[in-house]
Structure formats: C-alpha cells, structure tokens
Design brief:
CATH topology of the largest domain: OB fold (Dihydrolipoamide Acetyltransferase, E2P)
Organism: Burhinus bistriatus
Shape: globular
GO molecular function: single-stranded DNA binding
Distance between the termini: 65 Å
Protein name: RADX protein
Radius of gyration: 21 Å
Order of helices and strands: HEEEEHEEEEHEEEEHEEEHHE
Number of helices: 6
Structural class: mainly beta
Strand content: 25-35%
Number of strands: 16
Pfam family, one: RADX
Length: 306
C-alpha cells in the first residue's frame, strides 16, 4: 500500500484528516506509566512512549490505555511496525528524551504519533525481522556502550549503555516518590565488572516495566543496562561517588534474555564476551555478594559534615 514517511507527516499533518500507513523501527521504549485517579473513569489508564524511526528521522509514538497490556511487551527495541489509522497530535513538552545512539539522526519534536483503541482505532502489525527488506531504508538500532575504564572521564548526566558480570546485587529498597505521598519507587543496587578496571560499575537499578528481569538479577549473570545516566557528586571527591542510574527509557537484560537483541552485534559487547571466556568461574564466584544493606553514596566520616 502507499506509505508515508515521518518527514512527510511533519509537513502535511495539519492539512490532513487521514494518514497513509507508516513503516517504522522502535529505537527506544519508556517504562509503562499508570495515570489512574479515583475521580477519572478510564478502564485501563496506561500510557507508554516509544521513539520510532524511518529513513527520514525519529519521532515519538504514544501507546494508550487498553492497547498497552495488549502490545507493550511485543514492541521491543528493534521491532519493525506497520501502523495504520493512527492519530497525530502536537508533542507533550515535558516528556523525557532518550539520547539517540546515532547523533546524526534527525528528530521530529513538534508532533507525535498516537495509537488508540478508537478515534481512530489503530491497526498495528509487527513485521518479523527476516521479512524486513533493506530497500525500506529503516535505521539499525545503535548503542553507546562504554567500558568501566572510560566511565571516570564522563560528565554528570551523560547517557550510556553498559554490559558487565554481576558481582553484587542488593535487596530491593523503596524510596518515596513525594515526601508525604503514598507512592514508592522500587530500586536495588548492583555491581558489575567488565575486566577493564579494578573498580566495578555501581548501578542504581529502578524497577522498569520488566519485573521478570528486575527480580532475577543474580551474581554471575551477564547484565546489560541501556540508557543509563552518569551521576557524580561534584561537591566532594568526584571519583569516589560516581555511579549509574536508570532513566525512563532504560532497558535491563540478564543471561537468558540476550538472544536476538540488537546489542549482541556491538563491538564492546563482543569484547566483553571474549573477556569472560578468559575468566575462571570459581574465582569470580568467591568474590560475589548478594543482599544486605548498602549505604550509597557513603555518609561523611564525621558527624558535623553529615
């Protein structure tokens, strides 16, 4: 059928009521958001953002309400979608922005694609990877993997992807979202090593919309975390408190989940796998720790500073 492109949509969306089908690849995926309130009568108040791209650039796509439980888990990073009967709206200005792996890619930030159950009822088709044709010109998923030795030189809030062998994982902890609110964030600390430094990656992993992965992070698993943000305490000794925290678009993968993921082709991932083959499992097992209380960043040495 006659397809349109994202740059065409941006030029013509105001003058059209009906849009031609779109063929796009998912490059980023946000966590699922629940926006239910007691006074509002929405059956399934869910929303999820995706960044999708074709040969002309990248645009946000929003999955609404009952389409979320139906489609959210199937739309993975790398998935190719054929979209028909979608709506176009002006962008929500306050949403988070992932950092694209390809810095040259054009971003269409004024509008976003909305997928709804009605007005109009969107038709979504997933195209299997083996049926995707090169002439469609869809971009590949690109990553920004770093090694542990490169981390110390990165600025605060820099976005990156990491792979490592888990040596420590803490218990799940909770932090209030707002001071007197009843909602909590769930998170856990983990350490992962990649052989490029004596120091591990220190990872603050908030529960994303992948409970089956979050609950099964164990020592000795190969852990991949994407769209992580660098956090460094710029006041005290900057190198002592550098760690990585998840963002709204972070995805986490552990051993058993890596097959078929686009990052398996990345050079730094391949280098890490080569390094693990040189390691003795028994030696690494002796150094692993699980559970317990992990105060981080550490409190100051004397009480006055604290």
């Amino acid at each position: 059928s006659k397809l349109t492109s994202l740059d065409q949509l941006e030029l013509t969306w105001r003058s059209r009521g009906h849009f031609h089908p779109l063929l796009v690849r998912v490059l980023h995926k946000s966590r699922l958001r629940y926006y239910g309130k007691p006074e509002k009568k929405v059956d399934m108040p869910y929303q999820a953002y995706f960044e999708v791209a074709d040969g002309s650039g990248m645009m946000s796509m929003v999955l609404w309400n009952s389409l979320c439980p139906e489609w959210y888990n199937s739309m993975k990073v790398g998935t190719v979608l054929l979209l028909e009967q979608y709506a176009i709206k002006t962008s929500y200005p306050f949403k988070t922005q992932p950092t694209p792996g390809d810095s040259q890619m054009k971003r269409f930030a004024t509008i976003e694609i909305n997928l709804n159950v009605r007005d109009p009822p969107t038709k979504i088709s997933i195209i299997p990877e083996e049926m995707v044709k090169p002439e469609w010109g869809l971009p590949e998923v690109k990553y920004r993997f770093i090694t542990r030795s490169e981390l110390d030189d990165l600025p605060n809030n820099h976005s990156c992807d990491v792979i490592g062998l888990v040596t420590f994982v803490g218990r799940a902890e909770r932090a209030r979202k707002r001071e007197h609110g009843e909602d909590f964030w769930l998170y856990r600390w983990a350490h992962a090593i990649d052989g490029t430094s004596d120091q591990p990656f220190i990872l603050e992993l908030f529960a994303t919309s992948q409970p089956d992965v979050f609950e099964h992070i164990h020592p000795m698993t190969y852990l991949v975390c994407t769209q992580m943000r660098v956090v460094r305490d710029l006041t005290e000794n900057p190198s002592s408190t550098i760690y990585l925290t998840t963002s709204n678009e972070s995805q986490i993968f552990i051993t058993g989940w890596h097959k078929g993921q686009p990052y398996t082709k990345d050079t730094k991932v391949k280098n890490f796998i080569q390094w693990t083959k040189t390691q003795s499992e028994a030696d690494q097992m002796k150094k692993t720790v699980i559970g317990g209380y992990y105060p981080f960043p550490r409190p100051p040495n004397n009480f006055l500073k604290y």
